Amino acid sequence: MNYYTVLKSELGPITVQANNEGLLGIWFEQHTTCPDVLGEHNPSHPMLKQAENELREYFAGERQAFTLPLAAIGTEFQRKVWKALCEIPYGEAISYQELAHRVGNPKAVRAVGTANGKNPLSIVVPCHRVVGKDGKLSGYAGGVERKLRLLNLESDNR
Fold first, then answer.
1. Labelling 123: which of 29, 78, 134, 153 has CA 20 to 30 A away?
2. Count of beta carbons in the 10 Å neighbourhood of residue 3
3. Model confidence over 74-88: pLDDT tens digits?
4. Residue 144: CB atoms within 10 Å
């Protein structure tokens, strides 16, 4: 069974979905990848309460790494990219090309970008830490303005 809640944040409402195994998704209100059916609304579910606490600490500058178990569904390649995203240090950014190198497929820059864009776990799996080769902000499903705010939050709290 899946459960969800909607949290208030500095970046607007965030929908958080989990099951008993872990976190399934975190979406901003304009995300097009948020599923139509989220499950049972249950803000007191232990996984959702942990997500709420960790996200609150993150936004307060008190948390640099998340400890939530992750249960996002994706292809093997997507999961490999998402794992590599989790290894980007807090407050740092890398290029899509560098991310492709890190997953062992330097020519798969577009595929890495696509997998990054399908990341269902915004913030916790920090796809906002990936920027264009020239350092420009691009391609964030939560909106480039949110990406900039997340990067600034992290650089201010390092």
1. 134
2. 21
3. 999 999 999 999 999
4. 13
With contact defined as beta carbons under 8 Å apart, do 21 and 71 qualify?
yes
Domain boundaries, the chain: 3-59, 76-156
Q: Please pick, among 26, 108, 127, 130, the residue that the annotation labels catalytic.
A: 127
Q: What is the CA radius of gyration of the chain?
A: 15
127 catalytic? Reply is yes
| Tokens read off for 117 | 């864009």
d(CA 54, CA 46): 12
**Model pTM?**
0.92
Reported as type and span, the H/E element at residue 116 is helix 109-117
Under CATH, what is the fold of the domain 76-156? Answer: Arc Repressor Mutant, subunit A (1.10.10)
- What is the token pair recorded at 79? 């999961």
